[in-house]
Specification:
Layout lengths: L1 H19 L5 H21 L5 H15 L4 H14 L7 H18 L1 H14 L6 E3 L5 E3 H15 L3 H14 L8
Antiparallel strand pairs: 1-2
Helix pairs in contact: 1-2, 1-3, 2-3, 3-4, 3-5, 4-6, 5-6, 5-7, 7-8
C-alpha cells in the first residue's frame, strides 16, 4: 500500500513539473531534467515491483509522461511491458485490460507503437483458442477485443476518426456474421 502511494506521489510530481515547463530558462530546465530523471528512475525501480499489473499500469503512465523528453526509454519500456502483459500469472481479463490500456497510451503517443502492439498480439495469440465475449451472444478474437477497447478509449478522448479506424479493424476480426465472417 505504501509503495502504491509513493508511486502515485512521484508520478503526480513529475507529471506536473514536466507538463508545465514551457520555456528553457536554466532553473526550469533543471527542474525538468530532475523530473525526467525521477521518471526514468521510477521505471527502473518498477522492474522490481512484484505486482505485475501494478508494474505494467504505472510504467505505462510514466512512459506517456516521459514520451516528449525521452522517447527511446519510453518506447523500449512500452514494448517490454506490453510483452509482460501476456504473462500467464495474470488472469485473462486483467491481461486483456492491461493490453487495452497500453494500446490506448501507444495510440496517444505514437501510432507506430500501436501498430507494433497489433503485430505482437497477432504473433502471440492463437486466434482459434482466444475468444473474448463482449457481453453479447457473439464472440470476437483477442485482437478484435483489443481494437474495440482502443475504439472506446479514442472516443473517450474525442478522437472520432481513430475510433472508427479501430472499430473497422475489430469488425474484421470478428467471428460472427455481424462482424463479416
Amino acid at each position: 500500500m505504501r509503495t502504491r502511494w509513493l508511486l502515485c506521489v512521484v508520478l503526480t510530481f513529475a507529471q506536473s513539473v514536466v507538463g508545465t515547463i514551457q520555456t528553457d530558462s536554466d532553473g526550469l530546465k533543471q527542474e525538468r531534467d530532475l523530473a525526467v530523471w525521477t521518471l526514468v528512475s521510477l521505471l527502473h525501480d518498477l522492474k522490481k515491483e512484484p505486482d505485475v499489473a501494478l508494474r505494467i499500469r504505472v510504467s505505462g503512465r510514466v512512459c506517456e509522461v516521459l514520451w516528449p523528453f525521452d522517447r527511446d526509454q519510453a518506447r523500449d519500456t512500452l514494448l517490454r511491458i506490453f510483452d509482460e502483459s501476456f504473462e500467464d500469472s495474470l488472469p485473462s481479463n486483467v491481461r486483456q485490460r492491461l493490453r487495452a490500456e497500453l494500446f490506448a497510451i501507444a495510440g496517444r503517443v505514437d501510432k507506430e507503437i500501436a501498430q507494433t502492439f497489433l503485430r505482437l498480439v497477432d504473433e502471440r495469440l492463437d486466434k482459434r483458442a482466444q475468444r473474448v465475449s463482449r457481453e453479447t451472444s457473439e464472440t470476437i478474437d483477442e485482437r478484435g477485443a483489443l481494437m474495440l477497447d482502443a475504439a472506446f478509449e479514442a472516443l473517450r478522448n474525442g478522437s472520432k476518426d481513430a475510433a472508427i479506424r479501430y472499430a473497422e479493424v475489430a469488425m474484421r476480426s470478428g467471428s460472427s456474421p455481424f462482424f463479416g465472417k
